[in-house]
Structures are given as C-alpha cells and as structure tokens.
Amino acid sequence: MKILPQWQSIISQEQSKPYFKELTQTITKQRENGEIIYPKVDDVFNAFTFTDLSDVKVVILGQDPYHGCNELGEPQAHGLAFSVAKGFKVPPSLVNMYKELVTDIEGFTTPNHGNLTAWAEQGVLLLNTVLTVKKANANSHAKLGWEMFTDNIIQEINTHNQGCVFILWGSHAQKKGKNIDKNKHLVLVGPHPSPLSAYRGFFGCQHFSKANTWLTKNNHKPIDWKIT
Q1: 197: burial class by Cβ within 10 Å (0-12, 13-18, 19+)?
Q2: Mean pLDDT, consecutive 10-residue segments, the chain of 228 residues?
Q3: Angstrom distance (rounded) from CA 211 to CA 209
Q4: Burial of 37 by CB count in 10 Å (0-12 exposed, 13-18 middle, 19+ buried)?
Q5: Is 52 known to be catalytic?
Q6: Rounded distance, CA 128 to CA 130, Å?
Q7: Are the C-beta atoms of 38 and 84 separated by less than 8 Å?
Q8: Catalytic residue selected from 64, 104, 181, 224
Q9: Residues 170, 171, 175, 180: is their CA dihedral positive or negative?
Q10: pTM for the model
Q11: Which one in 27, 123, 150, 214 has a CA-CA gap of 20 to 30 Å to 59?
C-alpha cells in the first residue's frame, strides 16, 4: 500500500498531533492484547492510495468498517467505505446501492461481488469516518479520535480541491459535511442505503447520475459506475 503524496503530507501532519498518537497507542495496545481489529493494518489507509487530493472527483462517506470475516478469518473490510473484498457476500447497503444504480445508470448490471476498487481508481474517495473496528463489534472504535482525523480530511478536500461531489447518505454523514462550501462543491444528501432507511427516499435519489452531470458540466470526466 502506497499513500499518494498529497495525502501522505496531510496524514503525516495528523499523525504528529497528540490526539492521533493517543489513537494509535490505543489500537496498538488492543492488537497486542489479542483483539482482532479490522481492516488489516496495511489496509487502514487504503482509501488514500488510489486518487490524490487534487484529483478527487466524488466523496462517498461511510461510517465505520465492516466488522465481519469469512470462515478463514479474512476481514470483509479492506479500507474502502461500502466496499468488500471479492469472495464476500455483498452487504445489504451495497445491495441497495446496486439496485439504485440499475435504475439510475443506463447499462448498469448488478455485479456478483462488492469490491468497489474500480470506483476508487477513477477518483471516488470511499471514506469511512472511523477507519478501524473490533471484530464483531460495530462502532467499537468510535470516539477514539478517528472522527477528528476524518473531519480534517474533509476540510482539506473542501479547501484545496477545486471542486468535487460529496455524497452524504444518512444523518451521520450529513453532520460530517455541514461545513462544505456549496459554492465550490456539489453536495448531495439523502437517506442511508441501509435496509432500515433506504425506503425513505434513497431509492430514486439518482445521486450517481447527478454526480456525473455535475462533473461533465464542470469539465471533469464522469465516473463509469459499472463494475465488472
């Protein structure tokens, strides 16, 4: 895993701050005590290895990583929000995202896996607001300091990226994005694709096509949302 240069500079600055040192110490101690933490150490910053800050076109905010694994103990989570490694069952929220894509993007067919790396490679930052989690314990690393880190990442994009699309599903993501400059960026908000809330307006939101319309209008190459 190689973090790209602009991100590396920003992340290095964050890592030097007291809150991040405390965060790292807490997680390291948990690992040393035998706790299983997802994703793997090498995948924690995976979202920052595909597209550098100035080239981000779309930001999709998730919450925390998937906390499950397969029968071999391999984690679902691989450092990209909503995405799972190939070979894993597609999670319910992503199933609903695929359903929306079928109706929103001409020619989209539902893939047989949930690996969204192809989006990341085109400039879609799939960012969870918390980057680690204990096995089988959702939100277990909330309030450790990751929220401050991702607040700062979002602010860096808001300030230094020349214009991108923020897709904020659910109240959690929308709170994280409250300070985004809407004169420079497109902010799309709606219900979370979770089965608990998708029926409240996620279906039919057309956020994927709206993102592409805005990108095209602003002289950016649109995202090919199809996944093979």
Answers
A1: middle
A2: 95 98 97 96 97 97 93 91 94 97 97 97 97 96 96 98 97 93 97 95 98 97 96
A3: 5
A4: buried
A5: no
A6: 5
A7: no
A8: 64
A9: positive
A10: 0.96
A11: 27
